[in-house]
Amino acid sequence: MKYMLLMYGAEDCWSEDERTECMLESMSIRDGLAVQGKCIASSPLYSVTAATCVRVRNGQRQITDGPYAETTEQLGGYYIIDVGDRDEAIEIASKLPPAMKGTVEIRPLLSLPDSLSLPEGDASQRPPSDAEKPKDYILLMYAEEGAWPPEEHAPALAESVDLCHQLHANGQFVSAAPLQSPETATCVRIRNGSRAVVDGPFPETKEQLGGYFLIRVANLDEAIAIAARIPGSLRGTAEIRPLFPLPSSRQNKFGGD
Fold it and tell me: Which residue numbers delimit the YCII-related domain (predicted)?
């Protein structure tokens, strides 16, 4: 079973030394999971001050700076894991340093129907621009629960998968996946050595995370242009966050490479 682990926390709760240590410990855990074949991708994200939100309404793009969800704890990174069940995902989440001061939200990925298949991520085949070094961005798709009726959700999903294949052909695709309903979410926190496991999503907002695209493009403008083409932007919000660069000794292991 594939799960996405979303790391939420207040950005001012870590000193710079603590943040560095947290990142190194998290990546060490990731290394161990990778050896076991249980980790698909992982990356920290830049501060929410670097976020850009894209919505498309009546054919017009609305672009705003800042994160989608204005909460005290913001998304700081993610893991995508492939494990036996939810209990194993909880055990992994409990070991991650962000659970000590923040929250790890566990969301199962939604299996695509047999008629749809995502491309294999390989954005290294062709750089998007000779003038600029490619940058990795994650596009987080938020929408209200029920925004897409079942008869409209399937065509929108198929259109999103088709877009992934177009991005792959352009050398811009790394990975993507829809998530199961927020009702399937599990939140894990560690406080004073005790673990708290709570059902339901972390941010209690009207619009919840429904999926993600991980892309490799020349700059933010290209990321915005892609976000505006995703059907989810028509009824929800695409939050664009740049991935935080890892040390050169690790950068080929994380972020979907």
Answer: 1-110, 137-245
Strands 186-191 and 74-82: unpaired
Query: What's the rounded Cα separation, in Å, for the pair 130 and 132?
Result: 6
Residue 101's CATH number: 3.30.70.1060
Its domain, for residue 138, covers 2-242
Cα separation, 43 vs 214, whole angstroms: 11
- Greater confidence (256 vs 156) lies with 156
What pLDDT digit, counting tens, does each position of 124-152 carry? Answer: 555 545 556 889 999 999 988 778 888 88
Is the pLDDT reported for residue 253 higher than 70?
no
pLDDT the model gives residue 71:
72
Sheet holding 103-108, edge to edge: 39-44, 74-82, 2-9, 103-108, 186-191, 194-199
Domain membership of residue 152 (yes or no) is yes
**Domains identified in the chain, total number:** 1
Q: Give the Cα separation of 108 and 159 in Å (integer).
A: 21
Specify the DSSP element, H or E, that contains 154.
Answer: helix 150-169
pTM (predicted TM-score): 0.87
The dihedrals phi and psi of 208, each to the nearest 5 degrees, come to -120, 155
Distance CA 179, CA 151 (A): 18
Q: Specify if 249 maps to a domain.
A: no
